[in-house]
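We treat protein structure as text, and this decision shapes the records that our systems exchange. The tokens are whole numbers drawn from a learned vocabulary of local backbone shapes. One such record is reproduced below, unchanged from the form in which we store it:
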Amino acid sequence: MFKRAIIIIFLLTTLISSKPAYAQEASGPVYIVQSGDSLSSIAEFFSVSINELMSVNGISDPNQLDAGQQLIIPGLEGVTGILNVEVVNFGDSFRSLVRRTQVSQAVFKKLNHVISPSQFYVGVGMIVPAQDENKILNTRMSTSTGESLLELAVKQNTDVWTLAGNNGLQGSWDGLPGDTLFASGESADQNISGLPSAFISAEIRDLPIKQGGTGVITVQTIPAVTLSGILVDHPLHFFPAENGTQVALQGVHALLEPGVYPLRLDATLADGSVQSYEQSILIVSGNYPDDPLLYVDPATIDPASTEPEQQQLIQITMPSNPTKYWNGQFISPAIAYPEFALFTSKYGNRRTYIGQGTNLQVQGFHTGLDYGGGTGLPITAPAAGQVVFAGFLTVRGNATIIDHGWGVYSGFWHQSEIRVQVGQMVQQNEVIGLVGGTGRVTGPHLHWELWVNGVQADPLDWLNQAYP
């Protein structure tokens, strides 16, 4: 099961970003070859032999495969069109995907080897053959308690038999309260399948979430609802966004084993009642490489020093300040010396530290981004915030921590000089310290670390796009 999910995610990363380069006459479903594909990987994914794939497509050399080439996939009788991939999001279900795409259950099961509805993890890609645009039903609706299918059909400017037929219902009597149905046209009610009535919508961005990634959970509810929840094993903290939604940000640990984990949303209504919805979410590998062995001062990897310091950091970065100080994208803290600002080690790299002259050895991962550069170069704030720590730590040397709000913190280690103090407000690109070589280092450099709701996340993601 998990192997299958990973294969689907591999194809997802290539499928969803490309369009056909050219067309060919095809008597069966067509797959668009992507950069990095091979005949063996395509054959394995679609459970066909390489010889079958070569024969039906007139291929004589298995090594001659071009990106953009269209391959007919044999053995899928009754399936036509381009094979696309749709990502399962929070609240999606087997039934809702079949209803919306108007692909028959038999074809859908055949393409995706679906055995159980539990396979619908958030973040998994499901193969859906492209349909005529007129057949796809993008308008969601659901019947309220006491509302008939006929009343719902009238509200959608359609007839009850069309609505029933499109959604696989036997007739006007077959609709259930809260069941999500699909139709063509516009609708003000965009409840996602399966979500309780307190939720209007819920969406997870940038699926699937990787080890070290930042989950962005955006929820819209009915009025007077307080949101909470859990991702993996971390309580979610929601904050109001400008568009009337509520947003939670959650880092995913770089050492979390790839697999399926819980995502739960809880809506507390004005009367104190709680409506909850839980669905499994797929966490995939960050594909982090190994750094060379690092020989360091034994005191900087001794648990007697490292554990208290780690607990101190956890306590500092635990509060979720409701004030969001940053606006837009973060910028590099080494932007003031770009000619020296090369990454010497990236977030997530697997590491082994060895105490010089001892048998002490510690395995872990690199918790931030390392920039090259000599002692005395300026370090600038990647985003606005308030300084909540400025002082010396055994492992991290001269350290500064900035609270950006909403549970997001930046840490800057190994400085030769700290230029700010606790309580000070800083603006983006303001100098906060100087590069140095204090603490556990093999030479002077800038280490930038980012905490998102209690977990160290990849800062590079925050340089490449704006959050939330």
